[in-house]
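Researcher: Let's run the pair from yesterday's discussion. Sequence first, then tokens, for each.
Model: Starting with the first of the pair.
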Amino acid sequence: MTTGYCVKCRTKREIQGATAVTLKNGKPATKGSCPTCSTTMFRIGKG
């Protein structure tokens, strides 16, 4: 599982429902949601 920083909870958490996406410049990223507060989480780079 990939971890990311939740801005709302202000802690590092596992990204729930993580999906791999590619940015406009070709860099890989991971997008998902926080398991606690359901806020969208985003992590740039390979997860």
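Model: Moving on to the second of the pair.
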Amino acid sequence: MSSTQNKNTYDDYQVKKKESVKHVDYMLFGGFSKNETPALFVRGSNPSMYADHLSYNAIDIESTLRGIRSTNLEGPSFKATPQLKHLPEVEYFKTDPTFIPQPYYHSTEERPLYLN
């Protein structure tokens, strides 16, 4: 009996290889995961950001917070000073200002029923 499946042919191998390469390129596309213009929202919760978006020396700050090299007996201790980045604020929609009414004042000097 002859085989009717094309599983081990050269052309089928090339098709599967091209499919695999396209799938990897799609999954590792940087446009989905890296924000080119990070910004903070004016209203609402802010999205998660990489530490590099918030400061210039994020790795040194994290090392200080975790206590790495805090008990170094060979050399000087390590203490990083934060060098923070300024992120712009983005407002996606305008809202009307909220007006709060004056508190109610009840006068006890007036009659309760004005027709009496």
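Researcher: Give me one sentence on the second I can quote.
Model: The chain has four helices and two strands.
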